[in-house]
Amino acid sequence: MQLIECPWCGPREEAEFSYGGQAHVPYPADPSALSDEEWAHYVFFRDNTAGVWAERWMHATACRRWFNAVRDTRTHAFLATYRPGDPSPDLTAAGTGAGRG
Amino acid sequence: MSTAPATGVPEHPALLWRNPDPKPSYDVVIVGGGGHGLATAHYLAKNHGITNVAVLEKGWLAGGNMARNTTLIRSNYLWDESAAIYEHSLKLWETLEEDLDYPILFSQRGVLNLAHTLQDVRDSVRRVGANVLNGVDAEWVDTAGVAELCPIVNTSPDIRYPVLGATYQPRAGIAKHDYVAWGLARRADEAGIDLIQDCEVLGFTTDGDRVTGVRTSRGDIACGTLALCAAGRTSTLTDELGFRVPLQSHPLQALVSELLEPVHPTVVMSNAVHVYVSQAHKGELVMGAGVDSYNGYGQRGSFHIVERQMAAAVELFPVFARAHVLRTWGGVVDVTPDASPIVGRTPYENVYLNCGWGTGGFKATPGVGWCLAHTIATGEPHPYNAPFTLDRFVTGRLVDEHGAAAVAH
C-alpha cells in the first residue's frame, strides 16, 4: 500500500487517510458580492489537472488533522506534504518521478 | 503467404474497419473513439445521413473505459431525467444486435439491487415506484425472492449486513463490451466515417466563439462541428479550449476471477456492502466497486480498494471464497458533483460536450450516441439530454443521482 507522509505523524498507509480534493481554494472574500455564476464556480468547479497539483488530505484514523500534498495525478506519486498555512512548494520545480520531496 | 511459418492457420478475418489517414477537413470531428464516440458516429450516419465525420482516438479504438467497464446495463434510476435517457438506451440495446448486424451477446438476465437496512428498503421501494411511473420495469422482491432469483447470495439473517430484499429489473443485463465497440465501428466505417487511431488532440484553432480546427499528433484537421467524447480526459481538452467543466477524474477499478462453471444467473449490486457482480458468458466472475477517492489519470488504483471489494463479495457470496483473481485493472472516470452526465452545449457555438458519465457510462452507449447525434445534427439538444446541461451547475437545476441511482458513485 502507498505510504503518505502525514506532516504530524509521519509515513502511514493510504487507507488511514481521507481525501479532500484541490487545495488552496479560498472562501470568497466578499461572499454577498458574488454572482450566481461565481458561486457555482466556487461550489462546484475545481481544477482537474493531469499532472502535478496541490490537494488536501486528512489523517482520518489518527491525528484527524488536515494537510496539503503535492502529487502527480498521472503517476499518483506524492512529491511533498506540508501543513496548512505553510506555503505550497514550487509546483513547477517539483518535476515528475522525483519521489517524496 | 503459403511459405509463412503459420501455414495451415485460418485466414485472417476480414477487417471490420479501415485505418485511414486523416483528411484535411470534416463536417464533424468527434474526439474520443470509445463507445460514446463510436455510437455518436453511427447514429450521425444512420439517423441523420451525416457521414463526413472523423472519430479521433489517441490510443487504439475502444481501449479506454469501453475496454475496462463491467458491462452492466440497466435503467432503474430514480429521477425522471435519468430514467428517460437510460430507458431510451436500454430500448436501443434491445434491438442493437439487429441494427449492427453483429453479435453483442446482450443478455437480459436481470439486476438485483440489494437492500441491507430499513433505510435501504424505504429508498428501494420508493425507487421501484418511481421506475414504474416512468415505464421502467421494476419490482420489489423480499429475501426469499432474492434467494430464488440468485441462490448463491447469502440470505442468512446472521450476517453483518443481512439481505432484507432487493429491487429487481428483469430487462437489465450485460453485453460483450468489445463486440459492441466493434459492431459500432464497423457500421460507422461502412457509412464512410473515418476512424482515426493513434491520433491525439493537442490543441484547437478558434475564431471568436467557433472552433475551426483540431491540432493533432497526425496534423491539423479542420472541423465544422466538434464533439468531445473523451470521458476521463475531457478536462485536458476543455482546459485547452479555455472553459471549465465541473469534473474530477478518478481511478475506477474492476477485476475478474478465473473461468468458472455457471453459478451466477443474474447481476447483483449492493450499495451498502458495495460490490457488483455478474458472470460473463465465458465464465469469469466480473466485479467492481466504487472509485478510488483521489484524482488520478494513471488507469490504476490502490490495492486496498480491490481488497475491500473482494471482502464484500465473499460476504455476500460465500461460494466465491475459493475463487481466484485472474486480473485487476483500472480506468479513469469523470465524476460530476451531482453524479449525472453533461451532454450538450458549451460556450463555443459549434462545440458539444459529452462527459461526466462517471462510473456508469457503458449502459448509456447507444442512448447517448442517439441523443448527441441529434444535438449535433439539429443544433438543439434531444429532449432526453436537454436536462443535462453544463449550466445546471449555475442555475441549480441539478439531477442529483448520488445515492438515488441505486449505487454509490
- Main β sheet profile of chain A: 4 strands, antiparallel
Fraction of residues in β-strands of chain A: 25-35%
Structural class of chain B: alpha/beta
What's the order of the H and E elements of chain A? Answer: EEEHEEEH
Low-confidence stretches of chain B: none
Order of helices and strands of chain B: EHEEHEHEHEEHEEEEHEEEEHEEEHH
What's the count of strands of chain B? 18
CATH superfamily of chain A: Folate-binding superfamily
Which assembly state applies to the chains in this document? Answer: heterodimer
Radius of gyration of chain A: 15 Å
Q: What distance separates the N and C termini of chain B?
A: 52 Å
Number of helices of chain A: 2
Which outline of chain A best applies? Answer: globular
CATH topology of chain A: Folate-binding fold
Taking Cα atoms only, what radius of gyration of chain B do you get, to the nearest Å? 21 Å
Distance between the termini of chain A: 19 Å
Count of domain modules of chain A: 1
Poorly predicted tracts of residues of chain A? 94-101
Mean model confidence by pLDDT of chain A: 90
Number of strands of chain A: 6
Short synopsis of the structure:
Chain A is mainly β and 101 residues long. Chain A is built from two helices and six strands; from the N terminus they run βββαβββα. Chain A has helices at residues 36-44, 91-94; strands at 3-6, 10-13, 18-22, 52-58, 66-72, 77-82.
Question: How is the secondary structure organized here?
Answer:
The complex is a heterodimer of chains A (101) and B (409).
Chain A: E1 3-6, E2 10-13, E3 18-22, H1 36-44, E4 52-58, E5 66-72, E6 77-82, H2 91-94
Antiparallel strand pairs in A: 1-2, 3-4, 4-5, 5-6
Chain B: E1 25-31, H1 35-48, E2 53-56, E3 72-73, H2 80-100, E4 111-115, H3 118-133, E5 139-141, H4 143-149, E6 165-169, E7 173-174, H5 177-190, E8 194-196, E9 201-207, E10 210-216, E11 219-228, H6 234-241, E12 248-259, E13 267-270, E14 275-279, E15 284-291, H7 303-316, E16 325-335, E17 342-345, E18 351-355, H8 365-378, H9 392-395
Parallel strand pairs in B: 1-2, 1-11, 2-8, 4-13, 11-18
Antiparallel strand pairs in B: 3-7, 4-6, 5-6, 9-10, 10-11, 12-15, 12-16, 13-14, 14-15, 17-18
Helix pairs in contact in B: 1-5, 1-8, 2-8
